[in-house]
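Just curious: can you write whichever protein you like plus the matching structure tokens?

***
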Amino acid sequence: MNNLNNHQLVLLTLLVSFVTSIATGIFTVTLIDQAPPSVTNTINRVVERTVETVIPTTQETIVRERVVVDKGGDLIVAAVEKASPALVRTYSVSEIVEGEIIPKERSTGFFINDQGLFVSFMGAPEEDLFVISDGGEYFLEHLGTSEGLGLSLFALEKDEDGNTPKLTLPSLALAKSDVQVGQTAIVLNSGTVAVSFVSGLVKDEERDPYYRLYLDESDNLVGAPVINVEENVIGILQAGGELVTAETIARFITATTAPEEANADSSSQIDA
């Protein structure tokens, strides 16, 4: 041993380790073969459990689908069902036969409140107009007309006691919020409905800006009220899809029903 150099000592160590490992393996196998079955079963279970604990490197991706229900169509249907009865026809007296009035259809419009104020897309009437409710005729008092807007304002004539008749006809409230580009617009016409949207704000140097609806045949719907999905009037349709907004209608009503206050406001604004 003393005569061996370092390289030879390393090779001798590797040889002894190799022989020792082979002998240990042979000895272990011999013992297992001679061991009772209970010992071998335990060893096998340990090996099996060790193999089962291997964790996969990839995980399964679970895809869950969620159905989103678009209720926009339901809102439109509900708005049309509630608002359509508020569209009222006006009539004039064609003739009277044996004390019975023969009506002649003139225009359509809607009540804006339960106080009997009635708005119609028409010029100044040349004859008395009335509406029919519960089989009876109720005449309208003409309060004023805006030739520029093509709108006329009426009020139910009061009875002999000075009271406004209470009709079963529903009313349509004017929307308080501003018109928004892209919002749903429902056009109510006699017997028909058109669903559109506000397509844009048109700016013209010769006139004030105005909103327009996206409609292919808007001229057939001129004078029809336009409502939103909350059943409030956002305007009245004019030729070319132009919209007379609820704000403009409200200003016209205020100027017509309270002209002195409106003139005072205008004068104060001019003085300012």
User: Anything to note?
Assistant: The radius of gyration is 44 Å.
